[in-house]
Amino acid sequence: MMKKETLNTLILRHGDRMLRQAGWPDTVDMAPVAPETVPGWLAACGSLSGVEILT
What we know:
It is built from 2 helices and 2 strands; from the N terminus they run αββα.
């Protein structure tokens, strides 16, 4: 179980890093979908202002 949690944490951090490298603002984060059922699946969640959407 510990290995699965560690792997999920590493995948989540990598997803966050990829968002930042792609230029997404800090208001958008990665979240695990259902780590017990589908480990490694992530969803991008957050909010953007009108200016951020248009740029």
